[in-house]
């Protein structure tokens, strides 16, 4: 039997984690609302396990109206209180308010959020041989974080920006030999 090689972070063998790795992580995501969802989830993940966010993702989608930018941008303090009372999501006021502020900022972007984020793609990033070869921050993630912040986004530091870049395919950080490295 041939051993299937996957990236190190799927090591806990949780079926949800493996499905995310095999079917989503590192695959190109385009479209303002889809990219906004990923920016938002990465912000919520800050300081937490990604598996925690994955397990709550459908709850997040329901709570935030499918991450439709125009809907989230129209949220009021009443929506903030509704979200903070929702046990199905991460109830952190700063993060909830950041998602709403980010939606409002996204509305003002010339060309849209997806276009801004994809300007920072790095298709020529080196193929990591192991976990040690995967950076937490890159010049591209610093530039993306800086541009997002300049445009009014919150909770988008260079580490969060790099996690976003990995998640939506701006870089391909599947390790060499990973079963899905070339399936993008």
Describe this structure in words.
This is DNA-3-methyladenine glycosylase I. It holds the Pfam family Adenine_glyco. It comes from Nonomuraea typhae. The chain has 184 residues and is mainly alpha-helical. The protein contains nine helices and no strands. Helix 2 (32-45) packs across helix 3, helix 2 packs antiparallel against helix 6 (93-107) and helix 8 (139-150) packs across helix 9. It starts with 14 loop residues before the first helix and ends in a 17-residue tail after the last helix. The longest helix has 15 residues, at 93-107.
Order of helices and strands: HHHHHHHHH
| Rg of Cα set | 16 Å
Question: Which bin fits the share of residues in helices?
Answer: 40-55%
Number of strands: 0
The low-confidence parts are none
Beta content comes to under 5%
Distance between the termini: 25 Å
Given helix and strand content, the structural type is mainly alpha
Task: Please give the largest β-sheet.
Answer: none
Mean pLDDT: 94
InterPro entries: Adenine_glyco (IPR005019), DNA-3mA_glycosylase (IPR052891), DNA_glycosylase (IPR011257), Tag (IPR004597)
Pfam families: Adenine_glyco (PF03352)
Protein name: DNA-3-methyladenine glycosylase I
Give me the secondary-structure topology:
Elements: H1 15-23, H2 32-45, H3 50-63, H4 69-73, H5 77-84, H6 93-107, H7 113-118, H8 139-150, H9 158-167
């Amino acid at each position: 039997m041939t051993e299937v090689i996957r990236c190190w972070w799927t090591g806990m063998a949780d079926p949800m984690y493996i499905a995310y790795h095999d079917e989503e992580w590192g695959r190109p995501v385009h479209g303002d609302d889809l990219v906004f969802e990923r920016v938002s989830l990465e912000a919520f993940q800050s300081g937490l396990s990604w598996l925690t966010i994955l397990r709550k993702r459908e709850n997040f989608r329901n709570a935030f109206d499918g991450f439709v930018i125009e809907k989230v941008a129209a949220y009021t303090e009443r929506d903030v209180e509704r979200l903070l009372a929702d046990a199905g999501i991460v109830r952190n006021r700063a993060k909830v308010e950041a998602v709403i502020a980010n939606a409002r900022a996204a509305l003002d972007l010339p060309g849209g959020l997806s276009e801004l984020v994809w300007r920072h793609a790095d298709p020529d990033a080196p193929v990591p041989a192991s976990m040690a070869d995967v950076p937490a921050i890159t010049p591209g993630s610093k530039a993306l974080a800086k541009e997002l912040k300049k445009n009014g986004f919150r909770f988008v530091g260079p580490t969060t920006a790099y996690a976003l870049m990995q998640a939506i395919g701006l870089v391909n950080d599947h390790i060499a030999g990973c079963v899905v490295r070339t399936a993008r």
